[in-house]
Specification:
Layout (H helix, E strand, L loop, with lengths): L1 H7 L3 H8 L7 H14 L5 H6 L6 E7 L3 H16 L3 E7 L5 H10 L4 E5 L5 H8 L4 E4 L8 E6 L1 H15 L4 E4 L7 H14 L6 E2 L5 H14 L5 E4 L2 H13 L9 E6 L12 E4 L2 H17 L6 E4 L2 E3 L13
Parallel strand pairs: 1-2, 1-3, 3-4, 4-5, 5-11, 6-7, 6-8, 8-9, 9-10
Antiparallel strand pairs: 10-12
Length: 326
Amino acid sequence: MEDVARLAGVSRALVSIVYREAPGASEATRARVLAAGNELGYRPDHRARLLGRSRTRLLGVTFDVQAPFHGDLVEALYLAAETAGYDLALSAVAPSRNEARAVQSLLDYRCEALVLLGPQLSQAALAALAESQPVIVVGRKVRAAGVDVVRTDDTAGSRLAVEHLLSLGHSRILHIDGAKFPGAAERRTGYRAAMRKAGLTPLVEPGGRTEADGADAAKNFLNDSPPVTAVTIFNDRAATGFLDTIRQSSVEVPGDLSVVGYDNTTIAGLSHIGLTTIAQHTTALAELTTQRAIARLTTNTDPTEEVVTPHLVSRTTTAPPARSHR
């Protein structure tokens, strides 16, 4: 900053005013200071600026770098936060970076509220975080003291998948599970309830949340040859791995095998995939999350749980079963 002030022929305080976009400098002076900064390659330290404020107006967001749906949610959160006069600070959870570290990074930036996308922290850990700042959990059903929850009705979503397949004439429907990941228990419950309501026997096989998990589930499916004509799968990632393995296999499967994913991520809509899936309403989730964060910051409101209704998006991976089954 000293070098910029010297080159522009102004005081250090005036350089600070210009870069903070505060009143007190003429347009000509602003232009001269910015030109000097560009010439020197100067970049203001935004973190230092935040530390000097009583409020940062930052919402801290943790997200799984390997989860496409989290990317869709982050995009929607940016728009919702900006509309409300806030900004986001992102902190990724990755194989080499756990949730605790991701959260601590946001606390170091003095984020006013924490938005945790599909967290796997214990309820005790979530409650401890909520003792010092608002915490909004997105995409996971939890009952942690002081924690707001914004989520999709995953039980209803899984039920929609089964009802769609039933309406096409399927009765032999398998569910590939999402293990212990957020939403898996509710989606499993919705599947079982819909099957039993139709007078059918539920059939659940282990799975997971990645393409590799879906591929492994497909290999087990091909080896066991269960007498089914339709499959609901925990999420779009696993469904994509499942479909890819099935399509490349030399093992005979029903030519009309229907597959339904979950999340309606961008990949599901690609023409060569055409995955029928359950869509989570990312805009509604983002807006409710932002509203809850701001309400907790500005008013003395109690934590709430907001539940958003999903809907089915029908594409080419579902169709009526053939007349003859194996």
